[in-house]
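Thread amino acids onto this structure.
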């Protein structure tokens, strides 16, 4: 196996998993991608040539079925959701160098080449498979018919097909030897142990084609088979670089960046990345990625945030109310990387106000304002440093030494804690020096040099914080950099100009720009605004939801909890019992009043009659139903949903509707026969 020669310039290739397009992006997807972006930015800031790849995984039975349910072709369906991922990544200021879609021609060509290569080398043969398959995980399950999937608990399907098989069993020993020789290959330790135990348990050959559906890449030369979606998906890491292309520019990119330095993945897909993928690469004679690093899960309401559980929060909501940087900061500060961590709106707002609005943001605006007030915005020559300045410099230098190492070890939470220790030190220094207070016995002329020293020193320390924080707070750090008169931080960082951030970089004579708002304090209604946005989105996109998912999306959650490694994610539940269903009180109601909610283009306010009572319900259907046409109509409502407030109005229940098409347009449930108002649906 060829290693990259040590003399080559330093390069770094980092990837996210490619995301399934059966569901819209949520905070869990954003988390993995933000982590990669922060790492990629920090590598670039060190002057390392970096390639950051993300994309969407668009083939397979799961996508085919989701598209069918939405009444769209798989291609249309995939294009729409893939577009949402792409738009979100740009909203979150992610700097991916490429975005691969597995439906692209360049990918298809590369996957077919990989398949042909493995077949030519004798690692793929034809056989027949009869066994269980989990469509949700796109995973073959070694268990008797009727068994649930051991990973997600959903029912498996029996498939009986003539298939191509990959000789995975031939790689058992080589894989174990590789893990042994490269302890850094699988991280963290817990995942490494799991994978090793799995391989030690014995590897069976792997079915790598399917014939029972069409939405995939055809096996070259035998087009009735499509290539197994995981082989298709994993290959994105090389096809995006140019594997399989004849174009010299692609071949050069592949040569420059392969093998990857880091595949960042969610912990649930370790087996695919640490067993199947290296085996495919070994079989193809290609070098193996240097590391596969697994992040833990973002939990909401104690379960893994996921569409199937229905407990998702969208990244757009947080970005809209608090800004993209706030989300980036929160996720990296709050979650201990590698472990599961809770998301709550309360802890988000608490961190935002504490660390960003009242912390860093407030510090910057005070110092910038004073520099303008006392020195017309021009950094003055400073008199010699005193003890307090020397202490602040020492604190900054100690942070400059420890923060990069903590960041490099992916201990983002601790790294940010360290960096915010410096924010607190600057704050303390300013408060103690109080440059705005002139002691009465001191003349103006005597006071100016002291002010110059304090403001110059505080601004210099802010410069250090800002340079180090840039990979996590790119938008705000760039604003601060400009205010400090230092120009375009994005450009400086991306071109390796921040390689060394030594104390003393802010030169006298530098002209500060006008102050600009950084993190306006989140007021009491911030959480309500985020919940409203989520509700409006849920109501308009997915009108027919279960009691559990509706509650988790709509009801404010328990007080802030910090990242909690001890909270295990519950397995995803596919089926509910009849008792579960009975908890949901579905009833027929008649619309008495329907009107638009002021300042909302999505919400209608309805008053409905349930026979024994009247209710007010808010429904996110304004873009699809004229209010006057609803009056008198009989609808189905979830009657025992906990009340919640939207736009200051209380909603007592939920209207049930089918969610149709890619946009999830609501179509209200109704009856062909006449039904009495108040009747229960069972
Ligand atoms: N398509 C496959 C991956 C193929 S990679 C060759 C897949 N897609 S996925 O959309 O289901 O999930 C992809 C990744 O999204 C996870 O591995 C994880 O990195 C991220 N997350 C999705 N939900 C998450 C949380 N709730 N928490 C943290 N990360 C989550 O699997």
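Threaded sequence (682 positions):
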């Amino acid at each position: 196996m060829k290693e990259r020669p040590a003399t080559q310039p330093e390069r770094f290739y980092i990837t996210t998993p490619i995301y399934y397009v059966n569901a819209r992006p949520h905070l869990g997807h954003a988390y993995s991608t933000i982590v990669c972006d922060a790492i990629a930015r920090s590598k670039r800031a060190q002057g390392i040539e970096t390639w950051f790849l993300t994309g969407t995984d668009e083939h397979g039975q799961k996508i085919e079925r989701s598209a069918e349910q939405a009444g769209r072709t798989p291609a249309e369906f995939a294009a729409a959701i893939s577009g949402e991922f792409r738009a979100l990544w740009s909203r979150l200021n992610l700097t991916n160098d490429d975005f691969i879609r597995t439906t692209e021609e360049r990918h298809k060509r590369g996957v077919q080449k990989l398949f042909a290569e493995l077949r030519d080398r004798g690692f793929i043969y034809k056989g027949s498979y009869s066994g269980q398959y989990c469509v949700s995980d796109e995973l073959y399950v070694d268990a008797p018919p009727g068994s649930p999937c051991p990973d997600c608990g959903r029912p498996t399907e029996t498939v009986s097909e003539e298939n191509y098989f990959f000789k995975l069993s031939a790689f058992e020993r080589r894989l174990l030897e590789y893990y042994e020789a490269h302890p850094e290959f699988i991280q963290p330790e817990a995942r490494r142990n799991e994978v090793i135990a799995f391989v030690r348990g014995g590897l069976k050959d792997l079915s790598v084609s399917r014939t029972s559906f069409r939405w995939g890449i055809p096996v070259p030369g035998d087009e009735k088979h499509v290539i197994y979606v995981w082989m298709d998906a994993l290959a994105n890491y090389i096809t995006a670089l140019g594997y399989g292309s004849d174009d010299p520019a692609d071949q050069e990119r592949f040569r420059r960046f392969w093998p990857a330095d880091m595949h960042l993945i969610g912990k649930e897909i370790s087996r695919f990345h640490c067993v199947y993928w290296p085996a495919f690469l070994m079989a193809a004679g290609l070098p193996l990625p240097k590391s596969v690093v697994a992040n833990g899960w973002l939990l909401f309401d104690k379960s893994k945030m996921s569409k199937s559980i229905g407990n998702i929060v969208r990244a757009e909501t947080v970005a809209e109310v608090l800004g993209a940087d706030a989300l980036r900061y929160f996720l990296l500060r709050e979650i201990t990387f590698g472990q599961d961590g809770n998301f709550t709106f309360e802890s988000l707002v608490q961190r935002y106000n504490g660390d960003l609005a009242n912390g860093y943001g407030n510090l910057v605006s005070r110092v910038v304002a004073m520099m303008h007030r006392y020195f017309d915005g021009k950094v003055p020559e400073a008199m010699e440093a005193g003890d307090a300045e020397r202490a602040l410099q020492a604190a900054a230098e100690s942070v400059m030494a420890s923060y990069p190492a903590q960041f490099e070890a992916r201990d983002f939470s601790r790294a940010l804690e360290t960096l915010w220790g410096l924010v607190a030190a600057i704050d303390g220094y300013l408060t103690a020096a109080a440059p705005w207070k002139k002691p009465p016995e001191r003349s103006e002329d005597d006071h100016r040099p002291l002010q110059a020293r304090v403001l110059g020193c505080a601004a210099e320390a802010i410069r250090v914080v800002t340079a180090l924080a840039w990979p996590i707070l790119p938008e705000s750090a760039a604003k601060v950099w400009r205010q400090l008169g230092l120009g375009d931080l994005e450009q400086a960082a991306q071109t390796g100009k921040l390689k060394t951030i030594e104390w003393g970089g802010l030169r006298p004579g530098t002209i500060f720009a006008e102050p600009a708002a950084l993190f306006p304090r989140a007021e009491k209604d911030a959480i309500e605004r985020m919940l409203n946005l989520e509700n409006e989105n849920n109501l308009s996109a997915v009108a027919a939801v279960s009691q559990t998912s509706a509650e988790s999306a709509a009801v404010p959650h328990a007080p802030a909890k910090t990242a909690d490694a001890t909270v295990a994610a519950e397995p995803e539940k596919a089926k509910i019992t009849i008792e579960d269903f009975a908890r949901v009180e579905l009833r027929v109601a008649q619309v008495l009043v329907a009107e638009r909610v002021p300042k909302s283009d999505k919400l209608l306010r309805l008053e409905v009659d349930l026979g024994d009572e009247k209710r007010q319900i808010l429904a996110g259907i304004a873009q699809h139903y004229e209010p006057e046409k609803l009056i008198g109509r009989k609808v189905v409502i979830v009657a025992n949903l906990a009340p919640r407030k939207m736009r200051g109005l209380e909603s007592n229940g939920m209207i049930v509707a089918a969610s149709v098409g890619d946009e999830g347009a609501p179509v209200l449930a109704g009856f062909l026969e006449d039904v009495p108002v108040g009747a229960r649906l069972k």
